[in-house]
Write a structure and sequence with these properties.
Shape: flat
CATH architecture of the largest domain: 2-Layer Sandwich
Number of strands: 7
Low-confidence stretches: none
Number of helices: 11
Helix content: 40-55%
Mean pLDDT: 93
Bound molecules: flavin-adenine dinucleotide
Order of helices and strands: HEEEEHHEHEHHEHHHHH
Largest sheet: 5 strands, antiparallel
Number of domains: 3
Structural class: alpha+beta
Radius of gyration: 25 Å
Strand order of the largest sheet: 2-3-5-7-6
């Protein structure tokens, strides 16, 4: 080690303005999800923020480093932040970080882990015994396979089949007794777990910056995402919104509830001609967008 390191004098400066804990001194903020699931916010950076501001002050603070102090007078915090969000100046949003503790079924975790920009530490079923917790929707929540959307379902299943499905889940969950039995007999935990279903719960610590969290939320709060992961994404948004209120509002306005128009769609809108494609899915997407834009009635014949 360079001896110079011991010589450095650290100048510990006080805050320039009065600060408060954005989490109000709580050790964590929790929201229950489904039967055994949970989203808990355990830490935020920055956590100590100037009185009257949210953690999103760090976004404008970072942006002003690149724009220079000169812009400070002309840009209100909210205006600058919304400008950054609209123009995809994303790095200032990475200055805010969140650490979560999540408990979710493995089938939800499998979708979640595809998001590579978070730091994750997951419960190990090699070291520890898996707990007797399974995601078990009620019969009223059993969805029918959609014919329009090959990846999902939204309409309720008939009650008889729904009950039959729930009974099947009950039977599968009984397998937990066998898991315990083989653990007791000394089968390695890393093997004993392999017969447990994807409905069993896992948990992890998950840390992510605000830019990448918004990317995650835009995909997983979207109606195309599976309902179960949407429930977690919605709970996460509910937790971060009071921490970064201006950024959360900009996310809704410019991302989640905004709309991307392709060149073909802009051309069709401008000329009033049909979309210049023979692709049925692309045409259907444009029809749906026109309904959202209020320029066409739902179910109208495409032109
Ligand atoms: C509704 C829905 C259905 C899906 N269906 C399927 C499916 O059927 N099968 C399937 O396999 N997956 C599926 N996925 C997962 C999807 O394809 C993505 O893997 C997932 O949403 C993560 O997206 P991402 O890569 O943008 O996010 P993240 O991994 O969070 O990355 C964020 C951004 O960082 C950048 N980035 C991160 N890592 C890299 C890298 N290595 N190289 C370059 N850029 C990088 C990219 O710009 C990326 O958009 C589905 C996702 C959704 C939302």
């Amino acid at each position: 080690m360079d001896p110079q390191i011991d010589q450095y004098k650290i100048d510990r400066k006080p805050h320039e303005a009065e600060v408060h804990d954005i989490m109000d001194g709580a050790s964590r903020w929790e929201i229950k999800v489904h039967d055994h699931g949970m989203v808990a916010l355990v830490d935020v950076m920055p956590r100590l923020v100037p009185k009257g501001k949210g953690s999103d002050f760090a976004i404008v603070q970072a942006a002003r480093v690149s724009y220079g102090q000169g812009t400070k007078q002309v840009n209100e915090d909210r205006g600058l932040l919304r400008y950054l969000a609209r123009h995809r100046h994303t790095t200032p949003f990475e200055m805010v970080e969140f650490k979560f503790h999540h408990i979710m079924p493995i089938f939800v975790a499998r979708q979640w882990i595809r998001h590579r920009t978070a730091n994750v530490n997951e419960y190990s079923a090699r070291y520890s015994v898996v707990q007797d917790r399974f995601y078990h929707p009620g019969a009223e929540s059993i969805r029918q396979q959609s014919t329009a959307n090959r990846q999902g379902g939204d309409q309720p299943m008939d009650s008889l089949t729904a009950q039959e499905f729930c009974d099947w889940l009950d039977q599968i969950e009984k397998q937990y007794e066998k898991y315990e039995y083989f653990i007791e007999k000394g089968v390695a935990r890393e093997l004993a777990r392999i017969a447990l279903p994807a409905s069993v719960y896992t948990e992890w610590y998950w840390k992510i910056d605000l830019h990448n969290l918004f990317h995650f939320l835009s995909l997983r709060m979207d109606p195309h995402a599976q309902q179960e992961i949407r429930d977690y994404a919605n709970a996460m948004f509910a937790l971060v919104r009071p921490i970064v209120p201006i950024a959360a509002e900009a996310f809704i306005d410019y991302n989640l509830e905004s709309m991307h128009l392709t060149r073909l769609e802009i051309e069709s809108m401008r000329t009033g001609k049909p979309l210049a494609t023979e692709n049925k899915r692309e045409t259907a997407e444009w029809e749906a967008k026109k309904v959202r834009l209020g320029v066409q009635q739902a179910g109208a014949t495409p032109k």
